[in-house]
Amino acid sequence: MPAVIEVRHLHKRYGTAVAVDDVSFRVEEGEIFGILGPNGAGKTTTVECVEGLRTADRGEIGVLGLDPRRDRAELTQRLGVQLQEGQLPGRLTVGEALRLYASFYRKPADPRALLDVLGLSGAHRTPYGRLSGGQKQRLSIALALIGSPEVAVLDELTTGLDPQARRDTWELIREVRSRGVTIVLVTHFMEEAERLCDRVAVIDRGRVVAVDSPTGLAERVQGGRRTQIRFRPSTPFEDSLLATLPDVTAVTHQGDLMVVTGNADVLTAVASVLARNGIVAEHLRLEQPSLEDAFVALTGDHAARPDTTGGSAVNVAP
Amino acid sequence: MPAPASPGTTPPIAQLPASALKLLALTELKLLVRERVGPVYAIGLPLALLIVFGNIPFYTAHHTSGSFAGRTLLGVYLPVLAAFALAALSFNVVPAVLAGYREKGVLRRLRTTPVGPARVLAAHLLVTAATAAVSVATVLLVARLAFAVALPRQAGGYVVGFLLAALALLAIGLFIAAAAPNGRVANAAGATLFYVMMFSAGLFLPLDAMPPLLRHICRASPLGAAVQALSDATDGHMPHLLQLLTLAAYAVVFGAGAVRLFRWE
């Protein structure tokens, strides 16, 4: 089956500055695909080329089998776009905006129903200029979905939202996906990618450094060897009891806490040894490699700490 | 529905329902009214000026000799009020609104939809021109009914002159919007031009009362040419070809310049 979005060797420069060096990825039907990267990595430029707002200098882009520049008429009917910065006239009301945008499409969604889903029904008659940041953001999502698109590209979806609104928005996006809409999510927000995306492309300095599921990325980068267990043993025992296990790489102490590091199976191995010896692990906590760890490792120091340039690279394998 | 097999980046005109264009124009009209600046400047002020002038005997007295022979000063000023309405919209409304649309990303968002931003510009200009037409019609009617000023004797010529003037001025307004980096600059440039242009329209000193050299210079300006054309039609002559060509030239030059310079974002 052909991919919903296929980008091959995309290259785009502004003057002498290379915004996108060489980006390739495929987005499959029905998935939530994340584009993750530090600021200035080329994420927005990449999706702007996909949306047909910019012309690529090199490379090929296909969206639903269409060329974003040549087939604009058809593409705009089937691709919904939520822009990072795109306001509306201040005196246009929410209801008017949705009705106006609905009139642009062949088979628009029901504006009323969309407002309900987005929790904007109460703001139906509110002028755009009087909406809160969260309401503006939700209206922006509504406008991206009003044309019943097959694909929606959402750029910095939850930036500026409070934690509750952010969670509500994620729930909404899952719901949209369950209706069969393919979603591309541009974000620099790790938790968002981790919770929402089926697959993530990590972009750094204009290049794709990895494409995988959030867990896949986390495990791949850490070599699967950085799961950590912390607990307070009910009775003291020799470190060697655990340190000799094949799944364990290190045993250290933090006060009366024992810290055991190992691969993904370390918990099972440690638990069975402790059980056999009648030791209870109190205050047990498990720390697994996160997407954030993977991200820092993949994009290097400059992304995690923007004030240091050209710092030492983080070791991918321990 | 099959994809249109059009090469290049032709906008999807055929696919757009007429309701979209109607709704777009209606929306622009609502916004213009809600912003108040347009209606107040373009309809309220000319009407207020008409009513004030109309109640001062100095303006309503018939001149029997001199530059205004056979006319009242009020009648002389009516074409200036028409120019005022056009200029107010073209210099004080169009640049600020359109540059604001670009600055706020309104046009950018529209680029991602099937309508595209060009139609919004067109809808805005159309609504603006219609507002100016309403203003001129109202002023002429009130002048006729309340102050017994005759309607333009050469109606066809008046309409032609008005349409060309509207094209020329809106083109200049669009050009300011295209050249200005943001809404504030567009607003300042427009407001400044408004006063300069209103002088050349004869707001402070009627064209016919100007010294010949100044009169010729003013007639070469867009508003001066517009007022001369409308005055001729008011007096019952076809507007002079020179003024019509002047207006057409402004429309073409600034229209082309605006199209070339205009950025959607």
TrEMBL record, chain A:
Residues 5-230 form the ABC transporter domain. Its main location: membrane. Coiled coil: none annotated. It comes from the Bacteria. It is a peripheral membrane protein. Pfam families: ABC_tran (PF00005). It is found in: Cell membrane. InterPro entries: AAA+_ATPase (IPR003593), ABC_transporter-like_ATP-bd (IPR003439), ABC_transporter-like_CS (IPR017871), ABC_transporter_ATP-binding (IPR050763), P-loop_NTPase (IPR027417). One of its GO terms (molecular function) is ATP binding. Keywords: Antibiotic resistance, ATP-binding, Nucleotide-binding, Transport. This is ABC transporter ATP-binding protein. It comes from Actinacidiphila epipremni.
